[in-house]
Amino acid sequence: MQTILYKADSRGDANHGWLHSKHTFSFANYYNPERMNFGVLRVLNDDKVSGGMGFGTHPHQNMEIVSIPLSGDLEHQDSMGNTTVIKEGDIQVMSAGTGVQHSEYNKNKDEEVKFLQIWVIPNKQNVEPRYDQITLDKADRKNKLQQVLSPNKEDAGVWVYQDAWFNLTDLDAGKELTYTFNKPGNGLYIFVLEGSITAGDQTLERRDGLGVLEANAVEIKASQDAYVLFMEVPLSMG
Fold first, then answer.
1. What pLDDT digit, counting tens, does each position of 149-187 carry?
2. N or C: which end of the chain has fewer CB atoms below 10 A?
3. How open is the CA angle 203-209-213, to the nearest 5 degrees?
4. Distance CA 95, CA 109 (A)
5. pTM surpassing 0.85?
6. How far is Cα 141 from Cα 91, in angstroms, rounded to an integer?
7. What sign has the CA pseudo-torsion 178, 64, 7, 205?
8. Domains of the chain (ranges plus CATH)?
9. Distance CA 127, CA 218 (A)
């Protein structure tokens, strides 16, 4: 097993006043040639948006865009005719395909909205754009893995045009679980949202990330109560 450690304080830091974003990988004005992507995982932005503020209408093409709200309410509008609100416990996916325009705003004037913006490079180009969002049952990830994204329409969670699987877990301190890879040759990016864990022989604190390569499974143990996102993705763009 090989690992790449991404400490929380090594991320790009973009503070625009109304938007404070931490970039795991190169994005916008943050450029680090050693932090371009983890396989097809191209963007992992940890965003805070001030009350009433947001991203005006802008285009995307040929990208799988996943949003996972952590707190607050995020209002989404797009050129496919969708007007929705996503909040903690939801997950949203948009296949940009041949092209889509959308905007995202903090629906509330009096509190921040915090969310993860994740981009996955698709394995199919120029598809018809599509949008989906679901509400997850938090009980389904208590001390176990809850699949929230996969390549399969019939599986639990949302789906994407890529051999990628995302899982969440809420692990109590001292609890252990094993993440078993879904596809040989994939890599796994572990992102600690809250708390701390050990993954293999690595200790990860809040907002630390760990890329795992050349493995079939990874042992996880919570050092303290932990909320963790697992993103299994192909390492090759092909």
1. 999 999 989 999 999 999 999 999 999 999 999 999 999
2. C
3. 90
4. 29
5. yes
6. 14
7. negative
8. 12-135 (2.60.120.10), 138-233 (2.60.120.10)
9. 34
